[in-house]
Amino acid sequence: MNATPEKMIATLKTTAEARVSELSAASDSLMAVAEHLTALNLNTARSMMDDAVALSQSMLAVRDPKALVELQLATITPSLQKGFTYARTVAEISTRAQTELLKQVEVGMAQWLQGVIVTLEGLNRNAPMGSDFAVQALKTVVVNTSSAFESATQLAKQVSEAAQTNADQAAAAAVDAVNKGTKATVTMLKTAA
Q1: Distance separating alpha carbons of residues 148 and 12, to the nearest angstrom
Q2: CB neighbours (10 Å) of residue 175?
Q3: Which of 20, 87, 103, 124 could tie 135 with a disulfide, CB 3.0–4.6 Å?
Q4: Domain Phasin spans what residues (predicted)?
């Protein structure tokens, strides 16, 4: 083989620089996610405080106990809807971050596998006679590993999408059921008067 120390050091340096670049990109992605989540949390806290102040003012203005109960019941569905929206937004931010990081991992894996294939081809050119079978077997392992990684990645994406769809449907059904129950309770209170 013609692997001189200079070539090995250059290869290691190139590989290290690629990994540092990948880590930097991943770090930037995670910082963006942290910024989005922080902004979401601040906006949600501000909205909750505004709602609490408005509810307190409304409750202080009410003089009838039944009207007070109706006011309290009327806040349940909007609160659930806001909580559902918050959870869905967090899930969307997380899904985007996961997708972006997964793409970066896929690119890094593809580059690494390409480097392995190039190395194997170099070994094949410089290998002694009769070792073609071993080099070909290693190439097959690399190709199979790449295929398995792609299949696992695709399966993970499908499972994540299905889980998100099911969670959205369940939350919407729960909010609808609570809304109907709240309206029924308010109607019952009004008819009891």
Answers
A1: 27
A2: 19
A3: 124
A4: 12-106
